[in-house]
Amino acid sequence: MTGGLFGLPIAVASRWIFNSYAVRSPEGTVAVVDPGLPSVAEAVLDAIADQLALDPRDVRTVVCTHGHSDHVGGVSTLLDGCDAGTEVHLPQRCEAYLAGETPRLFPLVESSLRFMPVYREQPFSAGALREFLAGTSKVGFGGRPQMTVDFDPAGFLGEGAPVPSLPGWVTLSTPGHSDDSTCFYHADSATLISGDTVVTQDGTAWFNPEYVDLELAGETADRLLSLEVRHLLPGHGPPIEARDVWAGREAPDGPPHGCVAARPLLAPPRTLGALTGSRDPWGAALRSRCARHRHRPRHSTRDADST
Q1: Which partner from 194, 213, 270, 302 sits 20 to 30 angstroms from 223, CA to CA?
Q2: Contacts for 167 with CB less than 8 Å, ≥ 6 apart
């Protein structure tokens, strides 16, 4: 069955800028990624039926790309619609957070201003905004200094770990946006579920300008730029299909503060000159890294034993 997003066995559900994905395994079971708001969790359950022709009882696994409240806040709602045996797996670093370690946070106002172009990418939902604001004080971290959850994690996924119930999908540790940031990669289809490590804006891939550690974010960018990616499924912003998501050109024609412009298969490239008048260290660092990578051969992790 390949009737989902971009012809892949993947369903997508969104409320405003909050995306969740349901991935069908070859065995016909489902893993859900980032049911971040209660309404998003409900929408992805509907998408499993509408886009994958499966039942919520087929959900075996829930995985989250990081512990921010807008990525874990709808997990308990999702579990209410699934079988009792559905397991939740969080990034490895979340185990320490739940044991009492305080997560690092990026400066809220400054980072939110840099992130503003993404807010316009998807139809606004006042309800989703209210859910997000209410959830930051209840589940996950970001709006509160310590991480809490209202479900019992079955496990924690570290670098190279296979995604439970999804053969061929591998966990990538991608710190920068947060220390627990994680992506999920499928080499055979060149698909990256990027969480908040890479978002999209105006049809382009944009390494997230919200970060707790610029150096780690740069190292993560180096790594991801070396992967073959034709399908980019971000936590925020519309998914992108391109011959090479990383192919493009640097600012001033690229995305604001970012470094690469993905060229969608069926749409002409667009520029963002009005949004690229300012510069920050993130944009400069990533543009420099892009320049180094544009002529490097790309590889995938399909040769790794873990995939």
Answers
A1: 270
A2: 25, 26
The alpha carbon torsion through 110, 111, 115, 116 (nearest 10 deg) reads -30
* Residues 195, 199: Cα–Cα separation, whole Å: 8
Give the predicted TM-score (pTM) of the model: 0.84
pLDDT 10s digit of each residue in the chain, 307 long?
A: 446 999 999 999 999 999 999 999 999 999 999 999 999 999 999 999 999 999 999 999 999 999 999 999 999 999 999 999 999 999 999 999 999 999 999 988 888 888 999 999 999 999 999 999 988 878 999 988 899 999 999 999 999 999 999 999 999 999 999 999 999 999 999 999 999 999 998 888 999 999 999 999 999 999 999 999 999 999 999 999 999 999 753 222 334 544 443 333 333 223 222 222 333 434 444 444 444 444 444 443 343 343 3
State the total domains in the chain. Answer: 1
For residue 15, being part of any structural domain is answered with yes
Q: Is residue 165 part of a domain?
A: yes
Does the residue 307 lie in any domain? no
Nearest C-alpha neighbor of 117 from the set 294, 281, 270, 287: 270
